[in-house]
Design goal:
This protein is of the alpha+beta class. Helices cover about 60% and strands about 10% of the residues.
Amino acid sequence: MEDIGSKMIIEKVIKSLDEIRRRASIKKKEIDKLKSAMASTKIKIVEVKEEIEEDVITKEIIDTSEDFEIEVEYYLSELSKASDDEIEDILPTRSNYHYENIMLRLMAEITHDISDIKEMMITDNMSKEELDEFKEEIINLGRRRNIIKKSLLEVEKEDTITKSNKLIFMPISGNNKIRIFDELKDIPQEEFEGFLELLASIKDGTFKNIKRFVNNDSLKGALEVRGYQRRVVFQRLSKDCYAIITMFVKKTQNDRGYQQQLKYKYGEYKNMEKELKEKIKEEEFLEENKKYEEELFRLLENSKGVNK
């Protein structure tokens, strides 16, 4: 028999999916009305259809803010690349403000994918081989959903709440100097407290105002945490290791120099990514970066000596 916690989760996901169906029905009627109303005009309804079709998963059980949607997009992207064994490492930490809602949203997305496949199997004329392939995909998706559900149902432990990620700092190309310390010299000291908060959010897994770059091929996959004009660009190396690529105060949205510098620094990271993923297995390397982290946090907490 399923326990009470499991039943509550299932009820929430079912509620989410019922809302999906209700909204989909309403949206379809809206599309039909728009088609009829605009039949005699040159107005295209493609954008309207895309907007409606994109609103597949209900937002009722989650925060509908842009920041939340960015977080969901990040976790969905990471899950799509992960093996079953890696899923638990990718999921948000329990300290994340949106933890339960993100987990429920991920389960609802997978449930919706399963429903889509089942509908295709019924409505499309498929060969036995194709049907077997889709059946296997349903089994795989169900297994991934169960991993997320199991993680959500686990009793919170002390070490989960106090989990601390490791920060790995990028060197400047051509020498062994750590870029962050060089960049810190050009950052106004009144911004230090804000950067301390952003770095701390990477350490504790809350990822303040996280954003994933998706529209720029040169930055695709990069992540940043944000606070007003403060930015810390980073990338996940492993379950609990994150590469800190650069940090800066963003003066304008369309500053070309800033964009070029960001592309260059992220490109340097990508060139080193494979090597870094190997080096984080070495205790000595982790200890070295721990010292960098302690020094950086000390400077951000007390600005004396930054410009020496």
